[in-house]
Design goal:
Chain lengths: 375, 309
Amino acid sequence: MSVARDASSLSLEGSPSALVESELLLLLGSGGVGKTTCSAALALCAAHHGRRVLLLTIDPAQRLAAALGTESIAGSPMPLEGAPGLEVATLDRRAVSDALVRRHAPSAAVAEEILSDRLYQAFSGRLAGVQEYMAAVEIEAQLRRSVYDLVIVDTPPSQHALDLLDGPKRLQRALSSPALSWLQGGWRQGGAQLALKALARVSAVEFLDELNRFLQLFSQVLRGLEVDSGALIERLRSPHAQSVLIATTRKSTLEAALLTERALQDRGLGASLLVMNRSPYPLSPWSTEKERSASALLETLYPAQEVDEILSFWRKESQAQARQRATLRAAFNALPPLVELRQRGDGLPSHEALRALAMPLWEALTEGQRKLSKR
Amino acid sequence: MQQRPSPPLSRRFHLVTGKGGVGKSTVAATLGLYFARRGERTLICEMDPRAQLSTLFSLPSKPGEIVRLHNEVELWGVNIDLEAAILEYGTLKLRFQRLSRLFFDNPLTRTLINLLPGVSSLIMLGKAFHHERERVGRRFVWDRVIIDAPATGHSLALISLPRMISEVIRRGNLYRENAEMWALLQDAERSAVHVVTLPERLPLSETLELWEALERDLGVARGHLFLNQTPSSTHWPRPSPSTSTSLSEGDLSLLAELSQLLERRHREYERAQVALENFTLPCVPIELPRLDAFSLEGFTEIFADAVKK
């Protein structure tokens, strides 16, 4: 179905998505599973099918750029050559942080004070929860623009936690009154003398003053933000948002996916799909019969000295696959439906190859959406 | 005059770093077993709630406890637990548990620990350093101490923490602790920071960044570059199409399976070659193979051969 789309005016005419809220898709998974490649492939697929897509990565630019075959990814959404309908942006920690300080500080003077603060410079890229907070804000902002009908977020590799979802709340809690008022001088007052002595022995007291000042300043920025820390979680509760878990045959990645799913379910959410990336060709289970037949077959194909080696390799691979299938089956009740993505080809993937990779995933996701809209 | 750094494996303190999914824990465990087999009393420290060390050695997980990992050799492990580390650190430094509790339970410290990322890692790192320095009389308790760096977060961030904290906190015990840690990491006689990677495009490019930054930005003493999961080059030709004409149906599906299997094996090898061709590695890596069936003992023997070269 062709959609008349004027890039400059972003006309909605004829677009099936005009009636639907912007959709959000989070890709979750541990490191090394091919998340970034999957998100790139999925974004290309979606754009190819007429969606207006924003692909947001909260990882250093290079990964995604490499996956898409482009030089670098900018901080604000930029179209991708050869992929109409797709824009890509990275959430560079420092840049986002600075931009948000400027935008939301109560005054330019306060903004500059923060930006030049020693602690801000040391920690801004890294304050736990800040990055995630900023990311959540940015995602929300992009969704509200209604420029895109699909926002895909390639999340940073996570082993077990939902940093992206929990971070903002954690930050807000840390900056809540009890801690801040203690910082403001509560620790100097009587009754806290022992603690004060302890502090003096372990760290410099003036550091506390500095930290206090920084946190006071910074909390002003956060107060200026309209978005509440729970917004992203609320978004995920709507039928227009999905999260997808990505794992490979490597056990640690499956365990991470399981933990993440459990964490999601604890929050009343749940992933729509579990993607097994780099899934190998399915091997039938090993048995004495298979051993006999395989051995006989090999003898007709290969010299005697190689037959044993190849047979041994074949047996081990089959057994490994069977073990893994058993693990998955055992955990299956806890896991969402499975989509397997076959191993991709060699060399730098073309956009076409990437789209082909993501097709099963795209189909599973849009199928799911159709089911949802029938409710 | 610049002295040639001592061979990495001759040093006492080892930090194994790398992105998630490269096999860091496996390499750390292997390194540990390698030293232990040579009669050295070795401790592996991990900082991972998933307790991969226990899994590798098929042992129950006991966070915070130093457990023996191997029956025959002096190989020990500890999964550093944050809470326990905080309490111990506090008790060590502040001498009284009550005082320590007071300090570490108060909302500010908790705020700091939660707010500043890696402070928790730093505390755990501090515990590992404590093991490095532990003595009985004049002798070190441990001949070798290995840290399996946590997978979450960039290793660079973890390693740069001591320096960063020192720049911000300029006085007191915490500063001194950090300074000592930092000095150890930079001492090429005493420690080695290893990097583990895979023969794949993205891990390799990220590894190069890390490797360079370790020296250029942090000045830490680098160890080896481990290239993990290198595919076997044993070449078994895929069965030719002509063989399929006279086969039964059962055999045909077996043939299909075999073809796919060998095809994948061949592709993995080619992909690794291409990836490596596109990268000039900064040094000669130690190649560790992808094993069809993994056993830590077998892998350690291969490791021993590989490092000998």
